[in-house]
Amino acid sequence: MTAKVTLSFSDETIEEARRFARAEGLSLSAWMDQAAREKALREVFAAHAAAVGRAGLDLESAALADADEVGMVDDVLFGGRPRAA
Fold it and tell me: By the 8 A CB rule, do 49 and 59 touch?
């Protein structure tokens, strides 16, 4: 479902938005929808990262350790050769 809304932007902001929309082959409405959705997702992810940090979890170190482990297994199984896709 699509909602029609009236928004006000500075001349500079709307001109840049139009330029980016044209460059991506999108209508201004489609580009603004995508930009708003991406901003909302960044806010959600930032809030999640902050909550993880407050909880004292170190997910980055765990992810890096997992990647190192995958690399070690690949070395054993494939002798350092890249895996077939």
Answer: no
Q: How far apart, in whole angstroms, are the C-alpha atoms of residue 69 and residue 80? A: 13
Question: CA distances (Å), 1 to each of 5, 23, 50, 60, 76, in order?
Answer: 13, 26, 32, 38, 52
- For residues 39 and 29, the answer to whether their CB atoms sit within 8 Å is no
Residue type for position 23: A
What is the DSSP code (8-state) at residue 29?
A: H
Digit-coded pLDDT (tens) for 54-82? 888 777 888 888 888 888 888 888 786 66
Model confidence pTM above 0.85: no
